[in-house]
């Protein structure tokens, strides 16, 4: 068998909004709003330049079931570019962009094969090899059944058989259950590669054969951290090789600054600049949470009287004057040096807050988010936004309620 080469991508989420960027200037917010489309352009540019044998898109091309015109037009033009380059594309739709949604009709070019809501196989020839891809699209948003049970055994007449599945591994408590599967069920099909989608964290569940989540192509909030992209995959008799290709124009991540030995504020600011420049030289732009760690007596005293908002403004202004394309969303002062000074009432309050679920937080925040003036300046109160607020709240409680303050 001759080797084959393909791109495995998933979870494009074209049209997706960003959260946690309301504090940025209008120009910066526009930059973030366009990064999903920039990531998609990077994907298409790479494919046109490298000319793989085909491309697999394993679900959630669009962020919503009611696909925006801009997102559909952008995708249609990308598929036309791949068509002109002679690159076939096999796609499935996931829980976000399921076939039951409503949208204006766009005609995709002939190089695109779209799976319907029934598990089916699509075969074609690459360099004399018969390649079979088996998959399905979501017919509705919530597909809770184990669709893997409908996948056939590997086609013995095919040189390569690939499975496409947008779903979650059975028992993964960190994600909602969609088209659940067990790894052993995938392996039992004897496919050469499993192209998964749905989980935004890039991960390889198994090697030989490879079972792979490529993650999404662009982080959309600070829980989707690090570089995002897709895999350039090569299959051959000797095995599988994969290269991760970054598409994310902006990464959400954390920057950690050790405060040990810092005596003066200019040293701290310079350390923040250096860390931001190092990160962006390797990973493009970043929206970061700045963690100040390893405080000693001197650095703790230095930070004690400086409001975090003032410190954030000073550090951000300094970074903007550097070579780093970085924005600091907030600062977390990890003040373990003084943690023994947290008062008993402060501990009780933070313990209570730790037990709140999303419903409790929505009740606490409802007056602010229903305020006729304040609500205009706030991001939508999504579950992700609530989780960010909760993560920030307890450290601030500790700082504000130390014994003796």
TrEMBL record:
InterPro entries: Calcineurin-like_PHP (IPR004843), DNA_Repair-Maintenance_Comp (IPR050535), Metallo-depent_PP-like (IPR029052), Mre11_N (IPR041796), Pesterase_YhaO (IPR014576). Pfam families: Metallophos. Residues 4-200 form the Calcineurin-like phosphoesterase domain. SUPFAM superfamilies: Metallo-dependent phosphatases. The keyword Nuclease applies. CDD domains: MPP_Mre11_N. One of its GO terms (molecular function) is exonuclease activity. It comes from the Bacteria. The keyword Glycoprotein does not apply. Keywords: Exonuclease, Hydrolase, Nuclease. This is DNA repair exonuclease. It comes from Planococcus halotolerans. The lineage of its organism: Bacteria, Bacillati, Bacillota, Bacilli, Bacillales.
């Amino acid at each position: 068998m001759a080797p084959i080469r393909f791109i495995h991508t998933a979870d494009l989420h074209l049209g997706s909004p960003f959260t946690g960027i309301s504090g940025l200037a209008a120009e910066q917010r526009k930059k973030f709003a366009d990064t999903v489309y920039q990531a998609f352009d990077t994907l298409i540019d790479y494919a046109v330049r490298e000319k793989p044998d085909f491309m697999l898109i394993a679900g959630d091309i669009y962020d919503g079931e009611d696909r925006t015109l801009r997102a559909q037009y952008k995708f249609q033009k990308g598929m036309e570019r791949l068509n002109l380059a002679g690159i076939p594309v096999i796609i499935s739709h996931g829980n976000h962009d399921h076939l039951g949604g409503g949208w204006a009709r766009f005609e995709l070019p002939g190089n695109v094969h779209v799976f319907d809501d029934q598990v089916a196989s699509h075969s074609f020839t690459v360099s004399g090899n018969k390649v079979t891809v088996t998959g399905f699209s979501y017919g509705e948003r919530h597909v809770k059944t184990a669709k893997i049970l409908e996948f056939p055994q590997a086609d013995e007449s095919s040189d390569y058989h690939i499975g496409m599945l947008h779903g979650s591994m059975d028992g993964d408590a960190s994600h909602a259950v969609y088209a659940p599967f067990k790894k052993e069920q995938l392996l039992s099909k004897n496919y050469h590669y499993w192209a998964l989608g749905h989980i935004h964290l890039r991960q390889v569940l198994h090697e030989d054969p490879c079972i792979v989540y490529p993650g999404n192509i662009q982080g959309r909030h600070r829980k989707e951290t690090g570089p995002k992209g897709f895999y350039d995959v090569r299959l051959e008799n000797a095995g599988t090789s994969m290269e991760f290709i970054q598409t994310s124009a902006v990464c959400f991540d954390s920057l950690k600054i050790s405060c040990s030995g810092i005596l003066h504020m200019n040293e701290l600011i310079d350390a923040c600049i250096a860390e931001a420049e190092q990160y962006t030289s390797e990973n493009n732009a970043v929206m970061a949470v700045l963690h100040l760690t390893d405080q000693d007596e001197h650095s703790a005293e230095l930070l004690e009287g400086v409001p975090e908002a003032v410190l954030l403004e000073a550090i951000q202004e300094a970074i903007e004057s550097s070579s780093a394309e970085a924005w600091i969303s907030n600062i977390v002062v990890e003040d373990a040096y003084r943690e023994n000074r947290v008062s008993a009432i402060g501990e009780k309050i933070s313990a209570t807050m730790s037990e709140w679920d999303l419903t409790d937080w929505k009740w606490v925040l409802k007056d602010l988010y229903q305020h006729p003036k304040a609500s205009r300046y706030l991001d939508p109160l999504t579950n992700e936004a609530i989780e960010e607020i909760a993560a920030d709240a307890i450290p601030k409680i500790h700082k504000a309620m130390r014994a003796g303050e």
